[in-house]
Design brief:
Shape of chain A: globular
Largest sheet of chain B: 11 strands, mixed
Strand content of chain B: 15-25%
CATH superfamily of the largest domain in chain A: Thiolase/Chalcone synthase
Number of helices of chain A: 13
Order of helices and strands of chain B: EEHEEHHEHHHEHEHEHEHEHEHHEEEE
Radius of gyration of chain B: 20 Å
Oligomer: heterodimer
CATH topology of the largest domain in chain A: Peroxisomal Thiolase, Chain A, domain 1
Helix content of chain B: 25-40%
Shape of chain B: globular
Radius of gyration of chain A: 21 Å
CATH superfamily of the largest domain in chain B: Thiolase/Chalcone synthase
Number of helices of chain B: 13
Structural class of chain A: alpha/beta
Number of strands of chain A: 15
CATH class of the largest domain in chain A: Alpha Beta
Chain lengths: 430, 403
């Protein structure tokens, strides 16, 4: 019924522009708490292996939460070599490593002939926070005349992205988008637009979050972390009745986006195609999701419209759900509204149960996991699910991976600050 | 794809030499300096003490009192400029589908004052004393969210942190968004609040002048930090003509490039590439450019590289180039947005703002920098340059409105 109303409103009557370019993903680099490199990442996700462990990067002191999605077996030197890593912060090392993987994977040639046609687009909001605080603290304790000026360039928001260009000699453009949980998909949107408009042929599209004591303390103080409230457990269990907050995690993702014809020419593997993106802002509440989920619905609807697809065309949803009470329930209701009767049939999964809430990198994690699901013909599970919540009653893929040939999937990221963005990926069939 | 014509129909600025485009423009033409002793924090331990703080700005004049304390100063400045720009464009948002309006902003530091507060409390009193609000207010995504929230906007909102080119990145993406039909109206620009961190950082790099900012002068001693915001209302020509809007100027397009060389040192090749991309993408020949609003920070390296790049593209033609940073200091992520406002007013009024504090010509900066006095001349097509940390360059081409 709802669906019919949508059609009446003309939502799906948009004809695809003839000259719209097809944009595909031809390289993947991922560094995550559940695996380094795409194969390990996909394998762990499908196996439902959790990436949470006690924090070792800093002293959690008397904080009530002591676990996070910390990446423990990461050694930048093994990936990047020994040269030129000295002044780089952790966020930058993670991002550069992911970029190296993605470049190798796509076999992209960066030389004088191509470099001006390659761009960099990165989503990062708090990636510079560690360096900002390091600088502040040195200034506060030693005095402003004694701060080490070599930290200063790392305090700007675009420092990590810029270092991709510097290290890999990429000269097209270099943009950083900082829209919280939407950062990663916003960066993909920017990259797609740049290719559409001929500003670049190829874009390295990244996202990043690092586990710093400042960020962790911030989420802790906001009581956003699981296990902060009394008598609650530090567990990430999206859609489960016991959900009580996020488990924060870190990581970096870099994807290589190209126009389809260029990918064909270079004969590289095509992991998937970007079919549509929709974004919206919900101005109703400050720092809380609108209980009615209007912005979420608008993002999903406009992504469908952009892809010229109907709700029943979507085979799986990679949810934003992060194990907080409001986010999971509001998204569930928004999906019901947008997908109508098919809402109860479409498999939905929340990989934040295994990789955690990566904030700026969360969209990168989800997109990469969706590309893996398209490749493997299997949906990674939402783990830790065991108590049903009447408010979350859709077809979640719980605890075990589900075999299913997928052709079109949706990825959601919704920021409590009001921004929402949905992405639709298609399996590449030539 | 057929190119749509994109025009600018509303301008809003908050700067150290004036709030609102009229005061700002009059003071620019007078060559008034907005530099004074820094009062926002103690500089007694620093080597330098001057900056371009906005001292007569009251957030309460633009934002409801209860909302003022929910946000940091960069958000205050951004909302104030948006308010001014929307009024200037005579736009009643009630008549426009809020889903078709985009907010695209740029900033360098965002609300670093809030994180400085958090770090300071943490160091001096321990982590338990940290105020929750300083944490909530910090993430830079708040700036675009606050603007969208204030004006009940429901379209795409983005914030670029591409350092000192962020404003131009945002304006450029606004142009693209209109081209791609992602929005019908774009609120684009940049905002940055005076930051202790940046002040200390530039001071420690030895990049700051002790007193005044003297771009292109032989004895220039560096940049000065400033703060402010600039917002432009972008729409398609059809939309502007339909509603009988006043059109300040047209955006012909823009070019981007990355030096891929050094975090803080600009490179001639990258800057040349950026200006060339801008000219090529807009089909404008270099001889058609009447004026360049320079990045012109007043540091030895920036001005030298920028002038070399300009001379490489414009050969021996002495195109007028001025830097309003001589008056405002470097307003970081807001700089290129405030300079875009300046470009709009220059093409509309056929006057070029000067580079003040110019005393001694420098053979390394062999350009016509419109020294000290504004110049009346025909101005049709202009370039707005911005070069950022990381070697990220963005150059926007703006033209007098001719239907």
């Amino acid at each position: 019924m709802r669906q019919r109303q949508c059609i009446k409103k003309g939502l799906f009557n948009i004809t695809k522009e003839m000259d719209k370019k097809r944009i595909v993903i031809t390289g993947i680099g991922v560094i995550s708490p559940v695996g380094i490199g795409k194969d390990q990442y996909w394998e762990s996700l499908q196996a439902g292996k959790s990436g949470f462990r006690p924090i070792t990067l800093f002293d959690t002191l008397d904080l009530g939460v002591k676990i996070a999605g910390e990446i423990t077996n990461f050694n930048a030197k093994e990936i990047l070599g020994f040269q030129g890593l000295m002044d780089l912060d952790r966020a930058t090392l993670l991002l550069l490593s992911a970029a190296k993987f993605a470049l190798d994977d796509s076999r992209l040639i960066v030389d004088e002939a191509t470099t001006h046609r390659i761009g960099v687009s990165v989503g990062s909001t708090l990636g510079n926070l560690h360096s900002v605080s390091k600088f502040d603290r040195e200034s506060l304790t030693e005095g402003p005349r004694y701060v080490n000026p070599s930290i200063f360039p790392s305090t700007v928001g675009n420092s990590s992205a810029s270092r991709i260009s510097i290290r890999f000699q990429i000269k097209g453009f270099n943009a950083t988008l900082s829209t919280g949980m939407c950062s990663a998909l916003d960066a993909i949107d920017y990259a797609r637009d740049a290719i559409m408009l001929g500003r670049a042929d190829t874009v390295l599209c990244g996202s990043i979050e690092d586990l710093s004591s400042q960020t962790f303390l911030g989420f802790y103080k906001l009581k956003y972390l699981a296990g902060t409230k009394e008598k609650t457990e530090a567990i990430s269990c999206p859609f489960d009745k016991r959900r009580n907050g996020i488990i924060f995690s870190e990581g970096a993702v870099v994807l290589v986006l190209q126009e389809f014809s260029d990918a064909l020419k270079s004969n590289v593997k095509i992991y998937g195609e970007i079919l549509g993106i929709g974004s919206s802002f919900d101005p109703s509440k400050f720092y809380k999701y609108n209980p009615k989920g209007e912005g979420m619905k608008e993002a999903m609807r406009s992504a469908l419209k952009d892809a010229n697809l109907r709700p029943e065309d979507i085979d799986c949803i990679f949810a934003n759900a992060n194990s907080t009470q409001d986010a999971d329930a509001i998204e569930t209701n928004a999906i019901k509204d947008v997908f109508g009767s098919c809402a109860y049939k479409i498999p939905i999964t929340a990989i934040k149960s295994t990789v955690g809430e990566g904030f700026s990198v969360s969209g990168g994690f989800s997109t990469t996991s969706a590309l893996g699901a398209l490749q493997l013909g299997a949906i990674p599970p939402t783990i830790n699910y065991n108590q049903k919540d009447p408010g979350c009653d859709l077809n979640y893929v719980v605890n075990k991976s589900q075999k299913k040939e997928l052709s079109k999937v949706m990825v959601n990221t919704f920021n409590p600050g009001g921004a929402n963005i949905s992405l639709i990926l298609g399996k590449f069939n030539g | 794809m057929n190119k749509k014509r994109v025009v600018m129909t509303g301008l809003g600025v908050v700067t150290s030499i004036g709030i609102g485009k009229d005061t700002f423009w009059n003071n620019l033409l007078k060559g008034q300096s907005g530099i004074s002793k820094v009062e926002g924090f103690d500089t007694s331990e620093h080597f330098v003490h001057n900056g371009g703080e906005v001292k007569n700005f009251r957030a309460e004049d633009f934002i409801g009192k209860s909302r003022v304390k929910l946000m940091g100063k960069a958000s205050h400045l951004a909302i104030a400029s948006t308010n001014l720009a929307l009024k200037d464009a005579k736009l009643d948002l009630k008549n426009i589908d809020s889903k078709r309006i985009a907010v695209l902003l740029g900033t360098t530091s965002g609300e670093t004052q809030e994180i400085e507060e958090m770090d300071s409390t943490w160091v001096k009193k321990g982590k338990d004393a940290i105020d929750l609000w300083s944490i909530i207010q910090y993430p830079v995504s708040n700036i675009s969210s606050h603007v969208a929230m204030e004006f009940k906007i429901k379209g795409p909102t983005r914030i670029f942190t591409t350092a000192c080119a962020a404003g131009n990145y945002a304006i450029g993406y606004g142009y693209d968004s209109l081209q791609l039909g992602k929005a019908d109206l774009v609120i684009a620009g940049g905002s940055d609040a005076f930051s202790y961190l940046s002040f200390t950082g530039f001071s420690q790099l030895g990049a700051m002048a002790p007193e005044k900012c003297q771009p292109f002068d032989k004895n220039r001693k560096g940049m000065l930090q400033g703060e402010g915001s600039g917002i432009l209302i972008l729409e398609t020509m059809e939309s502007a003509l339909n509603r009988n809007a006043h059109i300040y100027a047209e955006i012909l397009g823009y070019g981007l490039s990355c030096d891929a060389s050094h975090m803080t040192n600009p490179q001639v090749d990258g800057v040349v590439q950026c200006m060339q991309n801008a000219l090529e993408r807009t089909n404008i020949k270099s001889e058609d450019i009447d004026y360049i609003s320079a990045h012109g920070t007043g540091t030895r390296n920036n001005d030298k590289a920028e002038c070399a790049a300009i001379n490489k593209i414009f050969q021996n033609r002495r195109v007028p180039v001025s830097s309003i940073k001589s008056m405002l200091g470097h307003t970081m992520g807001a700089a290129s947005a405030i300079e875009a406002v300046t470009c709009c007013l220059a093409v509309q009024n056929d006057i070029l703002p000067p580079t003040i504090n110019f005393e001694t010509p420098d053979s390394e900066c062999d350009i016509d920098c419109v020294p000290n006095v504004a110049r009346k001349q025909k101005v049709t097509t202009v370039l707005n340059n911005a070069f950022a940390f990381g070697g990220n360059n963005a150059c926007v081409v703006i033209k007098k409105w001719i239907e």
